[in-house]
From TrEMBL:
Keyword vocabulary terms for this entry: 4Fe-4S, Iron, Iron-sulfur, Metal-binding, Oxidoreductase
Listed InterPro entries: FAD/NAD-bd_sf, HdrA-like
GO molecular function: 4 iron, 4 sulfur cluster binding; metal ion binding; oxidoreductase activity
Tagged with keyword Iron: yes
Highest taxon, organism lineage: Bacteria
Organism: Thermomicrobium roseum
Iron-sulfur recorded as keyword: yes
Stretches the record annotates as Disordered: 416-437
Protein name stated in the entry: FAD-dependent oxidoreductase
């Protein structure tokens, strides 16, 4: 079977969904495909636990949303369903949003359906056809047979630069190991919204550190996110390598899944007042942080982000810390000072070799340190929105991505690129703000 669209997006993670819905609302025919049988990618399937990177680095009362486009719709819908818990993280010096992944999945599905996106799940891209500098079609394997999608523009939202790699275009793989995580979700955790959630999370993290060896855990520096309205806990307590080889990948994941079960048992035994009756709801899909990226027209660097670089072709702003998981036992954490942010240039999304392909999300061109900050959900959503507008503009003007009118693109992304005057700012806390110590 053969399908045609204005835009084909490979990867229905948060960046791919943001791109698909935005492009479809602009009147474009969009095909969104994913090898997984759910939408939301890691945000739903792992699940990753919190929406990070949406807000500015500032004291609690001053932290404002940096990238409202599309993200504020998701936040509003999560809040309507009482499925989000907003916190100020003193470690990150910004606001994060803990969410229920089941509700997020439903919200994303509705947004895609309402926008008229043709979404095909369980479809793995296995071949990309190319004519010179242009990608012309992508071939997909599904349980019902193969499918070919032709389009003038493609977006690689696969997290692993899978589309770019299939097209034979240059990619980068980090030279140091960057670990993924097998998350465990516990339900029936004894929590109420009046509890000191921060103190409970801290105590759980302390126990995971001090008792790790007794329970066979490799990682020491674990994170626990609590969703009191749902009596849920998300345990981010393991590290496993994520090689780009199917056999080696799963060999490294199986022991991590066992460790995730041990982490749950540790809390059930060592912290019975809160976790004694908790049950392991699920071990999610193994979480992959950073693997392969495109070679773009610019590679974002650690220096750029530490210096708060403002690019002339900026399409997103980020204030999330450097969070590099490059050791088995813990990770590098480098928060930015209050008021600091940096921008992502459009060129980091543009394939160096393919004229009609943009990358978004975890596989833009960035060095491992820069990517460890830029890959979180806030910037992923902002990149998806930017790519959709860029494709819409070039289809309108029949220009190429290289000749895109950056002024027009930035005008459309104005709310993500510039602060609104103070008196027009909405407070970040649409739900009660809980302070994390
Ligand atoms: C353990 C862990 C914890 C994290 N914690 C946080 C956190 O607390 N807050 C935060 O904001 N971020 C966190 N992150 C980062 C998070 O991964 C990103 O924010 C975001 O989810 C990435 O979105 P994405 O759309 O770029 O990619 P993904 O969500 O990875 O989506 C890519 C999609 O592409 C699909 N795909 C890949 N190859 C193919 C192919 N060949 N054919 C078809 N489909 C394909 C995949 O199935 C997948 O669904 C965490 C990541 C991990 C791994």
């Amino acid at each position: 079977e053969m399908l045609r669209a204005d835009l084909c997006i490979v990867g229905a993670g948060i960046s791919g969904v943001a791109c698909a819905v935005t492009a479809a609302r602009l009147g474009r025919q969009v095909i969104l495909i994913d090898s997984a049988p759910w939408v939301g990618g890691q945000a739903v399937g792992v699940p990753i636990g919190t929406i990070a990177g949406l807000y500015s680095a500032a004291p609690p009362e001053g932290s404002v949303i940096l990238s409202p486009l599309f993200a504020e719709e998701i936040l509003a819908q999560l809040q309507e369903r009482a499925a989000a818990w907003q916190m100020y993280s003193r470690r990150a010096r910004t606001v994060i949003v803990v969410y229920d992944e089941g509700e997020l999945e439903r919200i994303l599905e509705h947004l895609l359906q309402d926008a008229g996106v043709t979404t095909i799940l369980g479809a793995t891209a296995f071949h990309a056809s190319r004519e010179g500098d242009r990608l012309t079609a992508v071939s997909l394997a599904t349980r019902f047979g193969t499918l070919r999608v032709e389009a003038p523009y493609f977006v690689d939202a696969s997290g692993d630069a899978a589309l770019t790699w299939l097209a034979g275009a240059a990619c980068r793989v980090a030279q140091c190991p960057i670990y993924g995580t097998q998350i465990a979700v516990l339900e029936g955790v004894r929590l109420s919204p009046n509890d000191d959630i921060t103190a409970i999370a801290r105590r759980a993290e302390d126990l995971l550190r001090t008792q790790a060896a007794r329970y066979g855990l490799t990682r020491r520096d674990s994170r626990v996110f609590l969703l009191p309205q749902r009596q849920l806990a998300v345990l981010n307590a393991t590290h496993h390598p994520t090689p780009l080889d199917p056999v080696a990948f799963w060999r490294s994941v199986w022991p991590a899944r066992q460790e995730a079960e041990h982490a749950a048992r540790l809390l059930q035994s060592e912290y019975p007042e809160v976790f004694g009756e908790a049950r392991l709801r699920r071990l999610g899909h193994p979480g992959i942080r950073q693997t392969r990226t495109i070679v773009g027209r610019y590679s974002l660097t650690a220096e750029d982000i530490r210096h708060g670089k403002r690019f002339p072709d900026a399409i997103a702003r980020v204030a999330w810390p450097i969070e590099l998981h490059d050791t088995a036992t813990d990770y590098r954490w480098e928060p930015f000072s209050d008021g600091h942010s940096y921008t992502i240039p459009f060129r980091a999304l543009q394939s160096a070799e393919l004229d009609n392909v943009l990358a978004i999300g975890r596989c833009i061109d960035a060095d491992p340190i820069a990517l460890s900050s830029a890959r979180v959900m806030g910037p992923c959503i902002a990149m998806g929105v930017a790519a959709a507008h860029a494709v819409h503009l070039v289809l309108q003007s029949q220009a190429s991505l290289d000749r895109l009118d950056m002024r027009k693109l930035q005008e459309r992304l104005r709310r993500n690129l510039f602060d609104r005057p103070q008196d027009e700012q909405e407070p970040s806390q649409n739900v009660p703000l809980k302070l994390e110590s």
